[in-house]
Design goal:
By secondary structure, the chain is α/β, with parallel strands linked by helices. It has 14 helices and 13 strands. The radius of gyration is 23 Å and the shape is globular.
């Protein structure tokens, strides 16, 4: 393939930064079914804030195009699928977006073309689930008429230091020759370099264990936090002491949501179960982390009772609603678990998050989010759920009654304030 023309299908947190990067070297078209999203991008603004407006506008000025019209991508020959891979209400992998994207590829792919998947999946999905859809829709034969690759996304939403080109990329192909082609194309724009895996399944497996490993490590410190709380020991003090050893892994307790760490372990677990193995550690980690929202709510109420604060009809401020700091993404946020648990105590809840889109929060969760600090200055308790940078300069005590509770999930407050020494 001499004249590469790239199409990136799915223009979210993963697809848009990648498409913009590819457009610096190749003719590139971004495809998304959401017409409103396409129009906003072509107007020069990315609501996810992953691509700065000046970079996006510069790319568009240099020929980068976003579209929802399938006819606009028929002349591409290198297709990259970057759609979400969520779980359903029973935590089973939901491959519906992948099937839809594969159908789209099947409608436009031609002989000699390549389709590369970036979506997080369990080993085997690309070749056993996605490619058959492309074959059926296109009428073409895999590894004869068209080829495939897998290069797992490693986007860290909200991270302006580790951007897509600065993160080493794993690549793979359905044949050795295609593997090299895929690797060459990615390595031409990824300044951090690439690692070519020996097979698509190896690349898929590498991705799914990356976030599972983080999930298990965070679950471990969450469990430690519960233990130390019962013992009257400050978990942060313990972690600071342990971190003085050179090989101690500096994980912290917290809520584990989002579309990667909170989801990927379920993909790996189901894959293991299909092969007759019941993954104990992976699922135990998930149970621990999935229960942290309720735990935070319960601990907050206990602290209020210990201080003689009436819980019924009390006023509680929750600071932060997105799944992580300095990012507008509310997908699979675990803060909603805190809200649900607290509501069982018939308290009045105010949710403040300067990053979250109130309309999205209302649509997805039926909750009201405010983007500016409330005028109310007499809350009984505040839950610091997300470590947004804006929260670091707020005088928390000014929002609270003299007798109050501060529950700092992310350990961003001065502990002297929480202890009442300031």
């Amino acid at each position: 393939m001499k004249d590469i023309k790239i199409c990136v299908i799915g223009l979210g947190y993963v697809g848009l930064p990648l498409a913009r990067l590819f457009s610096t070297k190749y003719p590139t078209v971004g495809f998304d079914m959401n017409q409103n999203r396409v129009e906003a991008l072509m107007a020069g603004h990315d609501a996810t804030l992953e691509v700065a407006d000046d970079l996006l506008q510069s790319a568009i000025a240099n020929g980068f195009v976003c579209t929802s019209n399938i006819d606009d991508i028929r002349d591409c020959n290198f297709y990259v699928v970057a759609v979400p891979t969520p779980v359903d209400e029973n935590n089973n992998p939901d491959l519906t977006p992948l099937y839809g994207a594969s159908t789209t590829v099947g409608k436009v792919i031609s002989k000699g073309d390549v389709v590369v998947y970036e979506s997080t999946v369990y080993p085997g999905v690309t070749e056993d689930e996605c490619i058959p859809v492309v074959e059926k829709v296109s009428g073409l034969k895999f590894n004869v008429d068209f080829y495939a690759g897998y290069s797992p996304e490693r986007i860290n939403p909200g991270d302006k230091l580790h951007t897509v080109e600065k993160i080493k990329k794993v690549t793979s192909g359905s044949t050795p020759e295609i593997g090299k082609l895929v690797n060459d194309i990615y390595s031409s724009v990824i300044t951090a370099g690439t690692h070519m895996a020996p097979s698509i399944k190896v690349a898929e497996a590498a991705k799914v264990i990356e976030n599972s490993q983080r999930d298990i490590n965070i679950a471990f410190v969450n469990e430690l936090s519960k233990i130390f709380t019962k013992m009257g020991i400050d978990t942060q003090d313990v972690l600071e002491a342990a971190s003085t050893k050179w090989n101690f892994l500096p994980f912290k307790p917290g809520l584990v949501g989002g579309h990667c760490i909170g989801v990927d372990p379920y993909y790996l677990a189901q894959c293991a179960q299909r092969h007759g193995y019941n993954p104990e550690i992976i699922l135990a980690g998930r149970r621990m982390n999935d229960g942290m929202g309720e735990y935070v709510a319960t601990q907050t109420v206990k602290l209020m009772l210990k201080k003689g604060i009436q819980v019924l009809n009390s006023e509680i401020l929750i600071m932060g609603f997105t799944f992580k700091e300095n990012c507008p993404d509310v997908r699979n946020t675990k803060v909603v678990d805190i809200v649900k648990a607290l509501k069982e105590y018939n308290v009045n809840i105010t949710i403040y998050d300067p990053w979250a889109n109130p309309a999205v929060a209302e649509h997805e969760y039926g909750l009201t989010i405010i983007n500016v600090l409330p005028e109310k200055r007499d809350f009984d308790a505040v839950v610091m759920a997300v470590a947004h940078k804006e929260f670091l300069s707020i005088d928390i005590k000014s929002l609270l009654k003299p007798k109050h509770v501060i529950y700092d999930v992310k350990a961003i407050c001065d502990r002297a304030i929480i202890d009442g020494r300031l």
